[in-house]
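dumping this here so i dont lose it
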């Protein structure tokens, strides 16, 4: 990492680092569409509409923010302050009751515990205090995890959507490796090394390209997982920018379906395409936060109005919000995403009960 700026600019730098943007303070690449040279180099991954064989990109249009734009954001905008802490009473998730076949509990940010009749799924698990490449600085959580780590039920599958620090926390992955020895990690291409770094053996890790499908037979049934596209990017302090694929997951479990959308900008064909290929999910976990300022964020994070459009494009029977309210990452205030979500639902005529923003620890059965 380059030397960190001081004081408030240092704090704001580390905010961007959680999103992977901090390491963008290196020579910028404006448009990493597949180059002829890269395509000719020995491919490590299948060449496709989102990979030149070594680097990943968004189909149709890919924009990486430049060093100048990162600095412009950091120097010209004023983030709405967040509370230092928000009181949360962690809950212990009840097992599925008779007649229940699907329940989701928001633990915080992009971390959900999803209970199905075929097994238990944990998404983008982050239980650490900070979403940051370093333990002593960077965005600090403002509320305790809605479920204490020790109270997690046995986890069958850990889904990792991408490598950004607010989704991929190596300390949490280390704890899961030993505390949940039967869990299998399912992630996108070239993210397996992160699990290996956290002590997961190779036999417990599955990497998927977009649209690839993997079935896991667990004692309670089969979890069938398809990797789905998202419009985003990847970066950590180590490794090449966009060298690890990002995306989401469509999970089929005992007749029920869950779409973990992952970090994404809005795309007017992508989510309709997912619906066509995978079907309309019973439950979608949709990001609603980290969207201001729009001139900078619109290419990587949807805002609540776009999240409602994603919900409609997917045809989700129920959507639950994620990616807000836990780590101060961008410029909007903590409570703004659910307020904007409510306004967007009204404007779109979407019933309140079909796209909710649960509180940390709240369990939603559907
Ligand atoms: Zn991200
Ligand atoms: Zn994120």
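and the seq i came up w/
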């Amino acid at each position: 990492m380059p030397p960190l700026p001081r004081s408030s600019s240092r704090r704001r730098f580390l905010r961007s680092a959680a999103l992977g943007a901090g390491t963008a303070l290196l020579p910028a690449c404006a448009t990493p569409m597949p180059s002829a040279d890269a395509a000719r180099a020995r491919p490590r991954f299948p060449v496709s509409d989102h990979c030149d064989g070594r680097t990943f990109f968004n189909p149709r249009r890919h924009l990486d923010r430049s060093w100048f734009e990162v600095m412009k954001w950091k120097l010209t905008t004023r983030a709405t302050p967040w509370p230092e802490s928000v009181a949360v009473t962690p809950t212990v998730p009840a097992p599925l009751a008779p007649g229940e076949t699907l329940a989701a509990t928001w633990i915080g940010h992009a971390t959900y515990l999803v209970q199905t009749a075929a097994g238990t799924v944990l998404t983008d698990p982050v239980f650490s205090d900070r979403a940051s490449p370093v333990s002593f600085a960077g965005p600090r959580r403002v509320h305790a995890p809605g479920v204490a780590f020790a109270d997690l039920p046995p986890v069958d599958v850990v889904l990792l959507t991408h490598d950004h620090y607010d989704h991929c926390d190596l300390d949490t992955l280390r704890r899961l490796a030993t505390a949940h020895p039967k869990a299998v990690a399912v992630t996108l291409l070239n993210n397996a090394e992160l699990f290996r770094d956290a002590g997961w053996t190779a036999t417990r890790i599955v990497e998927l390209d977009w649209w690839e499908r993997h079935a896991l037979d667990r004692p309670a049934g089969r979890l069938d997982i398809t990797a789905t596209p998202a419009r985003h990017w990847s970066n950590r302090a180590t490794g090449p920018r966009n060298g690890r694929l990002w995306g989401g997951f469509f999970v089929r479990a005992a007749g029920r379906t869950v779409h973990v959308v992952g970090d994404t900008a809005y795309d007017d064909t992508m989510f309709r395409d997912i619906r066509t290929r995978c079907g309309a999910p019973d439950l979608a976990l949709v990001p609603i936060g980290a969207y201001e300022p729009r001139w900078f964020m619109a290419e990587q994070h949807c805002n609540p109005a776009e999240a409602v459009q994603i919900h409609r494009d997917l045809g989700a029977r129920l959507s639950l919000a994620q990616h807000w309210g836990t780590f101060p990452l961008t410029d909007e205030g903590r409570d703004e995403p659910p307020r904007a979500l409510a306004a967007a639902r009204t404007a779109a005529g979407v019933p309140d009960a079909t796209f909710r923003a649960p509180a940390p620890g709240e369990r939603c059965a559907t």
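The chain has nine helices and 14 strands.
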